[in-house]
## 1
Amino acid sequence: MNYHIFYAHIRNQITTELLKEPNRVYEIEQKISFQNSETIYTFCSEAAHIFYSIQNLLSLKSTGDISNSVQSYTNVIFTHLSKGEKLPTLDLILAAAEALSPLL
């Protein structure tokens, strides 16, 4: 699958999870102070990019089997966001590696 298409798929899956509950975006934005022009959506894009990069480093193919890993990764992200915690990059990397580990 083309890089841009698969990356967009991951980003969209994370964003779709965010938008399942209409009040979720508002609640997260009230709890978390984003820097400069960062928003919840740019954070979701960054998280998707990290997931895709870790997937490539682990030499995993872009297949349908990866959907469960993306869902697991998304759950970790939103568990923290709903508590008002924005995961730093290192924690996103660790969460992505952990979510992808069952596919190794």
## 2
Amino acid sequence: MNPLTWQNPEQLFVAQVLKKIFYNSVAELR
């Protein structure tokens, strides 16, 4: 599925939150 096809702001928001949590987790593991 192409993220660019998402027109739902809620899906984009959730994707950004999950990405932020993922990056924070990776940063903490270093």
## 3
Amino acid sequence: MWGSALEAPAVITELRRYRIKPDRLASWVAFFHEAARRNEAGGSQVEFAGVDPDTSTFVWLRTYTDEADRETRKSAFYGADWWTEREAFAMDHVIEYDVTFLETAIHREGGGLVDVPWPRQGERPGSRGDSPPDGWIASMRQAWVRGESDA
């Protein structure tokens, strides 16, 4: 682990929320057990995965060193035979999903919390846009944030 907050790596996290077809939730969780390990084998760090059975929502988090690392590791995972052979099966479970990109502000080190310098320098998480899976389009919902020059 890191000796101080100044040595802590700049980490970005994807918070991914999936609404799963209610009758497919158990199948999705079983599938994801392997998908999480495949993500980790490719260098992504899966931090958490959990289920809200009342809303059939599956949430998981994975982290990367920076945006370039995220792009490289995701391309390797989604371009691998394992995923391309299972993508249609996996996405048939999903009603909709969204991704929120988070910058680390506090990190757990051992048994305690460490403040991480924020705002981080460099490329914003998620600034290298992702393409949706085949057959998917962006929803009508959009979120807007004030630009730095307007702050």
## 4
Amino acid sequence: MIPLLLLATMLTGFLYYLWTPKPIYQSASFLPYSKLLTPTSPLQTSTLANQEKKPAKLLPLEQRQNQFWPMVRKAARQHKLDPALVMAVIQVESCFRPNAISPKGAMGLMQITGPTAKHLGLSKPMDPKANIKAGVRYLAELKRRFKNNVVMTLAAYNAGPTKVRSQGKVPDHRETRQYITRVLGKMNEFRTRFQGLAKN
């Protein structure tokens, strides 16, 4: 009887061991993938960064203006334009937001449309430097076409050169006239603000 009782007790204990729930993750080889990544793991850090990626915070307006001023000054010099004029165009067009896209599809700082970008060979309209270079080049092209008349140049930049040339004057559109007034006003502000810096 005693051996049978002992055997029964051992068997019961063995069965209890088999059926009792035990921790699954007992070594690194059995840990789930996420548990293997420590907080300092480059892979986990990269994954979390992608999941929590947010749009870059936009700098205050004056800081954005100062940031792009050197690019504007350089491009304006190359095309013999007043840098204050270019700054004013950017201010009115995009408020110095590099990723700005208008309802009509104009892109970047100088709000260059698809056809104009193609004409200028601009492949990266959202790149500030490329956008400024292309926009200044286009503005200079319009200024030559309209015999250095700044008002007509701005009208063409806003309404399109074909329309301005066909009418031989500033189109009688409220938007275009307001655009010209705003740009000229901002141009005077930038001339005062960057006076001296433009010569450096």
